[in-house]
Amino acid sequence: MKSAHETKAANPRLNEVFDDLVATLKAFIRKHHIQYDEYHRALALLTEAGDKQEIPLLMDVFLEMTVNDVTYADRPGTETTVEGPFYVAGAPMLKQPFVLPHRANEPGDVLFFSGTVRSTDGAPLARAVVDVWQSDAEGQYSHFNIPEAKAPFNLRGRLTTDQSGRFEVQTWVPSSYQIPIAGPTGALLTALGRHAWRPAHLHLKVSHDGHATLTTQVFLQDDPWIDSDVVGAVKGSLVVGLTKHEDPSDLRKRDLKRPYYTASYDFVLPRVMAKAA
Ligand code: DHB
Ligand code: FE
177-213: per-residue pLDDT in tens? Predict the structure, then answer.
């Protein structure tokens, strides 16, 4: 029943969803006969997640994919998937030839990731911005797992497509990635008897004026975790193969002098209606 003290300014949407959330949780407590021991364990988990700045990880692992499905249902163009907790805005704008910021001894194999950006009508999009972030070959994300002073924006950068909507960026092959297992999210997964792995992936935000920004990931085929991502974020349309280049005539590319890999993806962005002036 509505309280006489409720203010007129109260947000109706907030009231509706919050009331339903609380009603859903109350029904859940009754259904599962949740008593004080389990209630206190839930409080301890949430308190620890807050203290260790893990609320985003906890929420993203278990809930973000569903928010993504609901938000982007029926969206045309390249399929979206979760942003995850490790995006950092303001990565360096790179100059040609594009190479993601990396350490002098960046571990692993070089990857040239290339592709195109088009509109849903097929038109190539020049000067689209491709914001890339990924873990390194050891599954570490800069700003989160790698001390920032050592490698600011490591394997994070923004580049733009050329006149024909193409891009190519040099990076390093990401590895399968285990979400942090030392904290409460990992402890919960362990208690559930579930693994904490995500298949190797590149994260991307692709944007262009007049088009809806695409937040997605590109996954590497043949990864052992491709069918059991802990986050449930893999879609078949986002999986690409890696091609290895070791022929001596190939190794002249950018003077690399060592085998490297290539992968590519063609992104498609939906147009947004121009706002009425
Ligand atoms: C999540 C997403 C990631 O891309 C990642 O590397 C780790 C966790 C997530 O959604 O929880
Ligand atoms: Fe990730």
Answer: 999 899 999 999 999 999 999 999 999 999 999 999 9
* pLDDT 10s digits, 43-81: 999 999 999 999 999 999 999 999 999 999 999 999 999
Q: Whose CA is nearest to atom 8 of ligand 1?
A: 84
Which pLDDT score, from 0 to 100, does residue 274 have? 65
* Cα 35 to averaged position of ligand 1 atoms, centre (Å): 32
User: 113 CB under 6 A from ligand 1?
Assistant: no
Tokens 């009331």 sit on residue: 19
pTM: 0.91
**Residue to mutate (ligand 1; options 58, 63, 82, 188; most atoms within 8 A of CB):** 82
- In angstroms, the CA 86 to CA 135 distance is 9
For position 83, what pLDDT does the model report?
96
